Amino acid sequence: MHDGSCTPDRAFPDVFPKPQGPTHSPIAMSPTSSRPVFRAMFHASCLTACLTACLTAIRAVCLSSLLLLATAGSARLSAQDPVPFGERPEYRWSGETGFSSTVDALPLERVLAALPKRMPEHPYLYFDAAGMEEIRRRIERDPESAAIRDNLLAVAFKLLHQPVQMQVPIQARDPRAGWTPRDRGEGYKRTEYEDHYRETSENAFTLAFVYQLTGDPRYAAKAYEFADAFCEFPTWTRRAHEFPIIYDRIWPWNVSDDQVNFSFDHHNGDVLRLMGAVYDWLHPALDRRQRDRLRGAMLEKGINRVRGQYEQHWWATAYRTNWAGVNHSGLGVAALALLGEHPEFADVVAESYNGIRKMLSELGADGAWAEGGGYWSYGVTTSITFGDALRRVTGGELDLFQTARLKANPIAF
């Protein structure tokens, strides 16, 4: 999960040969980076944007490398816009506010028409069975890919033998403020709750991918153990973003001051992306009860907190904040993963597509972001996570990479 800190931009060498086709930043990842980057320093890829900077070196290497193997060279800006949106939005500039954009929402009917009538077999979010075979072939012919695989296997093998704690630790009231002895770590491990929250979700994610990579059912079983432990959390919203702490904040652009519902924060968005992938990757190995355990948690602690009541969540229209991208992306990935069981979640997919498209349209004419580079990286990379999955599922008919401001600024320094 992201803590809001800024990560310095760095240029990394290509891991794989450059693919043929358009040069608008196909995804690449450094084997030593803690998050994926577009070539020429454009930070955007699938899933790993949600990883926290406090991972250890080996965890950073392996977790950030998961979808390098899955998507390297596959996500790119296509030469033509497959969805005829008509005229591009006009941008109105003023000396006081900088700019605002007019971007019409895509009707639900258009989203329904783009989605498949019948969802394919899992996995399908970021790769299918044929895609995984290509990943394995790439590993065999590329030494750096093989090194990434070896690091992943080392971490996953260690996790196989790690006990899984089912008891959820007590959450401190506000560790940053130091209001209570638990907040200050007096007789307690101050970050015990946060560590358990992060480790259970991320360990499930790592092991689920390694299960797909190897086909070894031991990794699937252990991934489910960690995912089951994460489902034990009564809420996936973190205390720092609940009413007692967040209510008195100054609200951002395009958000009214009348805010009282804080049941879904950016941590929810982060873990929904992780759990959506876990559900997609583990689906073939799980029985019905196990699938329903994960599905129920994503509904109870995620989708059902927002679906049909977006107007009650301040971030839903805060298009100049990273939260808009993070949360719409998490909800969208989870909805895509569950469309086979819940075709009605097409409305969540539509909300995510429209919300992220409006957020990306608030990039400056030169690609700048009002919150600065750290939050640009967080908001945009998580948005592209959903964008990549949506483009795969719709066969390119819904393509967030074609958003005008993003397409015009594929490089960030």
General description of the model:
By secondary structure, this protein is mainly α. Helices cover 45% and strands 3% of the residues. The protein contains 15 helices and four strands. A two-stranded antiparallel sheet has the order 1-2. Strand 3 (91-94) and strand 4 (98-101) form a beta hairpin. Helix 7 (192-214) packs antiparallel against helix 8 (217-231). The protein is globular. The two termini are 23 Å apart. The model is unreliable at 1-61 and 73-101 (pLDDT under 50).
The rough form would be described as globular
Please compute the radius of gyration using only Cα atoms: 20 Å
Mean pLDDT: 80
Main β-sheet, spatial strand arrangement: 1-2
Helix content: 40-55%
Fraction in beta strands = under 5%
Main sheet specs: 2 strands, antiparallel
Q: How far apart, in Å, are the first and last alpha carbons?
A: 23 Å
Total helices: the number is 15
- How many E-type strands? 4
Order of helices and strands: EEHHEEHHHHHHHHHHHHH
**Protein structure class:** mainly alpha
Q: Unreliable runs, pLDDT <50, ≥5 residues?
A: 1-61, 73-101
What brief labels describe this structure?
mainly alpha, two-stranded antiparallel sheet, 45% helix, 3% strand, globular
SSE blueprint and pairings:
Elements (H helix, E strand, L loop, with lengths): L26 E2 L8 E2 L18 H8 L1 H6 L19 E4 L3 E4 L6 H7 L14 H13 L1 H18 L20 H4 L7 H23 L2 H15 L11 H4 L19 H17 L5 H14 L20 H16 L8 H15 L12 H21 L10 H5 L5
Antiparallel strand pairs: 1-2, 3-4
